[in-house]
Design goal:
single chain; about 575 residues; alpha+beta; 3 domains; 10-stranded antiparallel sheet; globular; TIGR04141 family sporadically distributed protein; CHP04141
Length: about 575
């Protein structure tokens, strides 16, 4: 038996057994005890009939497979069974679990989800980490990437939060390589039906206990530390988040994580064009159910409308239905959304239904990276201009861009979008002919808008790096066609030779205009500190932009300016 070990949150055997039995598991067989290390092992079992997979009957009917052929191929569509088992392992200090079949779906409700990474910190040195799965915040939600680290001299990045590591532990008893996520997977196959095998697995569990008790650590991983689900703090954070959503303040960033809908239950097609997303309030489905788009605004609008009926985030549910109106998956709103808020001077994030906060290692890496980016922040008075802010193409940054591009040194690219696979991407707002740089312009500190600006700069670099493939030149030149784009003020003529220079630019810059006192003062003193930005999401997006631009051999720069609009 190869051990994939999880650790229960509770050390009370009676409590854990009650939880497991409450999920339709029954204890079978006798308790086994290893005398040297006092390891106790108990087996809990669950089985149920299950339907054959949908695809089986479909293809058998389609290909006219005869009954005799089904028998020859051992195809039985009548009665199938699912077998699941959980072994509870009791040591002197802790309770652990090892699952078979779908048993992990039950144990995951009751385990300490930080056990695996805590164990990695106690047993694996950073230079011995060979593989890592990293969660990082980008575009308003957590995403996962996996890469190799061994012998590459690669250090954790500021936007990385470790979710899984694999590496060589210091203690040989644990094996040549262990995998650590929510649990720990050990490589050795133990023959538990032999006296020696039973002894060896007991010895391993005793060593795990010893490692967890150790005060020393081999490495500190940048990661999210979970807040206990059934805690006063979780209740307070839920209430604070709901209040901020209802009041639509700028103190919270919320996003529905559509990627989770796509990946739920290992399916890549849970939510698609043929699916519907429905939201409703528990115990009040008929009156409150609505179809919504997979957008942040639609959720916020719904919550505001039914705020008197909503008692908590768990009170609201979202479900996906297919084209036949069958429910594919249904979960509480809390499990679908990602959000970030500051509470009692600490930033918390809600992801996958759990609150957490970044550990000191994560925060230190982020601070160091932002200090590096502070070096590319620059200032220039000629960006601090008065301008008229109005409607149409004078709205948002439009009025500022119109005023700035009156100077012959700038080429206006604002709203001259490139269409890529149905997505419109703006190469830049302006092109500076003297410095040969592409500049995206953003006003204020609204998190979503600022993140969008940096994301547009990332997309701009992507299409410019592949300008031939995406027909960027012809896309930019098409706005010279006055039959289709008659507004010459909105889309001024740009010569082909100038378009060529724009495509050759290797400088990606962001001009950030501020009107909030705190940021205006830092800009006036030319002492802007990106670490002073309140939103963790925005800071991580800046790091993401900076890294991406550098990796693609572009030169990044951030200009800080003062916003001076006047009403039309």
């Amino acid at each position: 038996m190869k051990l994939i070990l999880s650790k229960f949150r509770s050390n009370s055997l009676s409590e854990v057994i009650k939880e497991i039995e409450g999920c339709s598991y029954v204890q079978i067989g006798g308790m086994r005890k290893e005398p040297t290390f006092n390891l106790e092992m108990r087996l809990f079992f669950e089985s149920h009939e299950k339907k054959p997979p949908v695809w089986l009957s479909e293809i058998i009917d389609f290909f006219n497979v005869e009954s005799s052929e089904q028998e020859e191929s051992n195809i039985n569509q009548s009665v199938l069974h699912q077998y699941n088992a959980i072994i509870i392992l009791k040591t002197r200090n802790n309770l652990y679990a090892h699952s078979f079949g779908q048993g992990f779906r039950t144990t995951e409700k009751f385990i300490d989800s930080e056990f695996g990474l805590k164990f990695a910190e106690k047993t694996i040195r950073s230079e011995q980490i060979t593989l890592k799965n990293v969660s990082y915040i980008q575009k308003n939600k957590m995403k996962g990437i996996m890469n190799y680290k061994k012998d590459q001299g690669e250090f954790p990045k500021a936007s990385e939060s470790y979710a899984f590591v694999s590496g060589r532990p210091e203690f040989e008893l644990f094996g040549n390589s262990i995998d650590c996520g929510t649990g720990v997977s050990f490589p050795k196959n133990y023959a538990i039906n032999t006296t020696e095998g039973f002894y060896k697995i007991s010895e391993l569990l005793d060593a795990v206990d010893t490692a967890l008790k150790s005060k020393s650590t081999k490495t500190i991983l940048p990661r999210v530390k979970k807040v206990a689900k059934k805690s006063k703090l979780t209740t307070e954070l839920d209430e604070e988040a709901l209040s901020l959503i209802i009041n639509s303040t700028d103190e919270i960033n919320i996003a529905i994580d559509v990627s989770k809908i796509h990946l739920e239950n290992n399916s890549i097609d849970v939510y698609s064009e043929n699916s519907n997303l429905e939201i409703y309030i528990s115990n009040n489905l008929k009156v409150t159910i609505q179809r919504i788009d997979a957008t942040d605004d639609s959720i916020v609008k719904y919550i505001k409308h039914y705020q008197d009926k909503i008692l908590s985030l768990d009170n609201v549910r979202i479900r996906v239905t297919n084209e036949d109106n069958h429910v594919v998956v249904s979960k509480s709103l809390k499990e679908w959304i990602y959000c970030e808020l500051e509470y009692n001077k600490k930033v918390y994030i809600l992801d996958s239904g759990s609150w957490g906060y970044f550990n000191d290692r994560f925060s230190l890496l982020l601070e160091q990276q932002l200090n590096d980016i502070n070096r590319i922040v620059t200032y220039s008075d000629h960006y601090n201009i008065n301008y008229i802010s109005g409607e149409g193409h004078f709205s948002g940054e439009g009025g500022y861009i119109e005023e700035l591009t009156k100077k012959n040194t700038y080429v206006k690219l604002h709203q001259r979008n490139v269409l890529v696979n149905g997505t419109t991407i703006e190469v830049a707002d302006i092109y500076d002919k003297e410095s040969k740089e592409l500049i995206a312009i953003k006003r204020g500190m609204d998190t979503s808008n600022c993140m969008y600006s940096f994301e547009q700069s990332v997309l701009s670099v992507q299409i410019l790096r592949n300008s031939d493939e995406f027909n960027v030149k012809s896309e930019l030149l098409k706005y010279n066609n006055r039959r289709k784009y008659a507004d010459i003020e909105k889309y001024p003529n740009i010569r082909e030779s100038m378009i060529d220079k724009i495509l050759d630019s290797r400088q990606s810059s962001v001009l950030w205009l501020h009107n909030t006192k705190k940021y205006v003062e830092m800009t006036e003193k030319e002492q802007f500190d990106l670490n002073q930005i309140g939103s963790m999401l925005l800071k991580l997006k800046i790091v993401d932009w900076y890294s991406f631009v550098n990796e693609n051999n572009y030169t990044p720069k951030i200009y800080m300016g003062i916003d001076k609009p006047a009403k039309a």
